[in-house]
Amino acid sequence: MLKKLVKYGNSTALVLEKPLLELMGMEEGSFVKISTIDGKSLTITPMPKNKTPLLNVYDQYLKNKAENTPEFESQVESIKEVLAPVFGRLSVKYNVNELVSKMVGNPGYVKEVAVLDEKYSDLTVPSKEYITALCVIRYKYCPELKAFDDEMKELTEQVERAYQKSE
Description:
By secondary structure, the protein is mainly alpha-helical. The chain has two domains: 41 residues, Pemi-like Protein 1, Chain: D, CATH 2.10.260; 114 residues, no CATH class. The chain contains seven helices and four strands. Helix 3 crosses helix 7. The chain is elongated, with a radius of gyration of 20 Å.
């Protein structure tokens, strides 16, 4: 089957017709895993419907963490992979790339973040205090990012609540 990519907002989309979706057991809103082996072709795999993909990955992540298995660290990447489409949709909705470009191009922002980074230079993992201070600076130079951050936080909390109900 030959398909043409189409413009969708600031992104490019591959439109799949209803018969193909039905054949694959998918519908609008279904989660898929997209992978490539050679960098020249894509494989699209439907994700199971019994739980959201994030919860499936999160289940395995917690199991591996509890059992302290070697797979524990690799699960972090899987979680990021599943969250990427959600992050992408919100990024388009809030035009995050443009907002961040404008923000990091502001010398005042760059200077304040450099001072903050110097203050916390001994940390290998950002502390809650550092993240809070960084958000204050972000919202000072780009208040529109607060709505994006708030929606991401709400989605995270929804996932956590859904996971707790599924236990």
